[in-house]
Structures are given as structure tokens and as C-alpha cells.
Amino acid sequence: MRRHGVHTLIGLAWLALVYWLNPSFLWWLLPVAGALAVSIPISVLSSRVSLGRSLREARIFLIPEESYPPRVLRRLRRLLRRPPRVPGFLDAVIDPLHNAIACAADVARTQHSDAIRHVHAGVVERAIADGPERMSAHEKSALLGDALSLSQLHFEVWTAPNVHADWIAAREAIANARRNSVELVKDAA
User: Fold this and answer.
1) Is 8 helix (H, G, I), strand (E, B) or coil?
2) 161-179 tens-digit pLDDT
3) Which residue in 112, 111, 116, 87 sits closest to 101, CA to CA?
4) Per the count of CB atoms within 10 A, which of 2, 53, 154, 162 is most buried?
5) Collapsing DSSP states into helix, strand and coil, what is residue 41?
6) Angle, helix 137-144 to helix 147-159, in steps of 10 degrees
7) Are the beta carbons of 72 and 188 closer than 8 angstroms?
8) How would you class 100 by CB atoms within 10 Å of its CB: exposed for 0-12, middle for 13-18, buried for 19 or more?
9) Which residues, including other chains, have CB under 8 Å from residue 175's CB and lie 6 or more apart?
10) Among residues 92, 162, 84, 170, which one has the least CA distance to residue 129?
């Protein structure tokens, strides 16, 4: 009533004035003045969520993209239905994007003592030689909390000639996953 009361009064007054002057013009004016006169019930009914859902289910008032979505939107919906894989330690070490994010997340660029840096360097050397499976959760956590050591491990995994076979397999798996993701995006386009 507060929003459309004035509109309703104007519509009713207009219709009454036209009817008083010449009733035959009322039919010509009804689409405009009549709409103003019934603005309150139209506003109340058209704002109902249940009515909107019913009309959508009946496929009424849909835009073309809702009736016949483009191929790229259909593909996107299929991709979004699949839950994303949660990146783990191997992703943080091998995948350049995840590595950059993990390194950037190093809290306030913590300054570690020389002793801790030496311990982390030893962990990196053992990780390269023994592979990720032999690392303890504590060692993985320590490297994730040290951007420089994590970055060093990333570099060594990709460039060291004597890297453990598990790192090579993980590199290939992540590279294949990335290639598949790129192909999915190309297919969607």
C-alpha cells in the first residue's frame, strides 16, 4: 500500500474522470490506467516465489539461454557437478600454481633461524632422494610453513637429475591432469 497506493489512486481517479467525460474512451485507456489501478495486487502476486517457481517449471518467461543453454554453459554445469579435487602436499611441491599459492601463504614471511634452515635443507635433500612417501607429516608440514624450502624442493623436483621415481610419477600425473583440464576447457569452448 505504501509503495503503490498513490499509483492506485491516480489510476482510479483517471478511470473515473474518463468515464465521467466519455465512457467510450474507457476501453482505450484501460491498459494504462487500469494497470495503475491494480498495481497493488499485481505487485503482491508477481513477487511470490512460489508463482515464479511454478512459471519456471512450466517453462514460461524463460530467456533463450535458459530454454536452450549454449554448449559452453551446459559443459560448465557438468564440470561444476563434479567435486573438485582437494590439492595436497604433492600439488604444493610439483604444480607451479599450487606451489606459488603455498609459498605466498607463508605467514608473514617468517624468518627462520640458521639451524631451522639447515634442518629444512636436510629434509629437502632426503625428500629428493627418498621420495614423498618416506616423508613424515611433520616434515611435510615444516616445508609447507617455509616458503624458501618449499620453493627449493619444487625446483629440485623439476630439475635434479637424481630425483626419486615417485616424484617423476607425481610430476607426470599432475601434468596429465593439467592437460586433461585444458582439453575439457577447450571442449567447452
Assistant:
1) helix
2) 888 999 989 888 887 877 7
3) 87
4) 154
5) helix
6) 110
7) yes
8) middle
9) none
10) 162
| Amino acid letter, residue 27 | W
Give the pLDDT confidence of 92-138 residue by residue, as tens digits: 999 888 899 888 887 656 677 888 888 989 999 999 989 898 899 99
Residue matched to cell numbers 560448465:
76
Q: What is the dihedral of CA 44, 47, 53, 56, to 10 degrees?
A: 110
SS3 33: helix
C-alpha cell read off for 36: 495503475
> DSSP of 100-167, one letter per residue?
HHHHHTSGGGPPPPHHHHHHHHHHHHHHHHH-GGGS-HHHHHHHHT-HHHHHHHHHHHHH-TT--HHH
The C-alpha R_g of the chain, in whole angstroms, comes to 33
Q: Which residues lie closer than 8 Å to 43 by C-beta, 6 or more apart?
A: 3, 4
Whole-number Å distance between alpha carbons of 32 and 10: 11
Determine the length of the chain. 189
